[in-house]
Amino acid sequence: MRTLAKVCQGTSEQPWFVLNAMKGLTQYKPQLKGISQIYRFQAGVSSDTTFAIPDGCIDIMFDCTETTPSAKICGSTLRAQNAKLKSGHEYLGVRFTPGALPRYLNISAKELISQRLNLFDLAHDRDHLLEKLITNQNFNHQVQIILKHLAREEFSKPSHKTQVALNAINECSGNIQINELETITGISKRTLQRLFREELGISPKEFSRIIRCQSAVNQINQLSEVTFIELAHNLGFSDQPHFMREFKNLVSSTPFAYQRKILESSYASRIQQVS
């Protein structure tokens, strides 16, 4: 039974960023191809337990603190991973859609999996961008600087067949088998795996696993009451213990503990959408 709300690829926020931010997270979703969202938050005192969970996307994160500014390019993780944020620092992030990446970085998605690299080691002539962001601390101004910078850049993007598979995985909340993807795309399992590895750095199975986890997280984020047995069944898990183990591995929390944090924090009120 596939009745869960669909996960729009790359549009979900990192929940631990929201939960552990000083004053919540501000988010803007532009109409620019290849960019999922631009967001900003101030890391809270729990920065040492702020995790990045798998989302299949690549982010550029700017530390806009004037004393020690930096810029990192962060690949998707395969399990919950400490984001290595500094308490009190102001972070501005740009999240790309799955398979999208500015070509000037000259690096593959596969090389970025679970990595945090210095942006300016890959793009030596882009340090002026960080300088502009630091001198314009207003979020709306920073958004315009980012958009102007990226609007003239070329992006790598998924091939047509890969995008068809991505859409199908998203449509089914990650609860889909590789043989179904073969039928939908009209290409073999081997070819599909090669395309995913080349364009996203992960296999179709790994991406489906990520979307399935994102679907579970989104359900808990959005609903005050969630029955975990039903959620596990809807997402295609063999049983509830399997779902619990998978959730703990990818989110670094049990579903029960995570749900408690969401309810106690009034999660939705900590996200400010701007247009």
From TrEMBL:
GO molecular function per UniProt: DNA-binding transcription factor activity; sequence-specific DNA binding
UniProt KW Cytoplasm keyword: no
Record keywords: DNA-binding, Transcription, Transcription regulation
Domain HTH araC/xylS-type positions: 140-261
Pfam families membership: DUF6597, HTH_18
The protein's name in its UniProt record: AraC-type DNA-binding domain and AraC-containing proteins
